[in-house]
Amino acid sequence: MRTALLQSSGQLGSVAENLKALDDAAGRAAAAGAGLLVAPELYLTGYAIGDDVARLAEPADGPSAIAIAETALRHGVAVAYGYPERDGEHVFNSVQLIGPDGARLANYRKTHLFGCFERDHFTPGEQAVVQAELGGLRIGLMICYDVEFPENVRAHALAGTDLLLVPTAQMHPFQFVAESVVPVRAFENQMYVAYVNRVGKEGEFEFVGLSTLAGPDGVARTRAGRDEQLVFADADPAFLAASREANPYLRDRRPGMYASLVRPA
User: pTM for the complete prediction?
Assistant: First the structure.
């Protein structure tokens, strides 16, 4: 499945402008033959918005979700996007996947919050593996810091995830995650990983770009630079099946030896 990675920070605090930009990107993605468009973490609102997180948060089925469903249906392309999700008194750092028919396919809440800003403004999610079927692939959802915990990605591998979508807000000086960690996660778990970043300065944060789609051979199929870009790469089910057959990692596991990994520190 041809996948479009939207490396952009959009307009800080302007949901309306970011919805327009997402619609434009969906049109360009569809014109290039993509079946899926992935936008970064908190794309709808911006990341460094302080207390506006709570003001701009919406339910998973709120007005922005309805607008993006119309975008997906109009262009015939699935869309995954980051946004602040309100559920009662709680606000989550979430990513939602909407299918090319406009149906809401999956919604994931970030489980590992990074830094004081996120811990002050968000409630951590409690469901590690969220998946949906799309274009013959099992799609998994995760957000930024989550992918830096190997247990998280291995859980997706054991659940059969083929393509893991990771909207992110990766900042300086942690660019090695995009450059090195993500391709290794793809290889050791035998899956494709689409890691889609913000770019440029927002308040105290400097986002490094470098969005990538890494394959199960650990090779980046595409790599964005440090500016706003729409880049493309393919997630090939046939290549994935052959790679899994050749790579013994998951077959050679010895789960009985790993009990200490789930004991409290």
Answer: 0.97
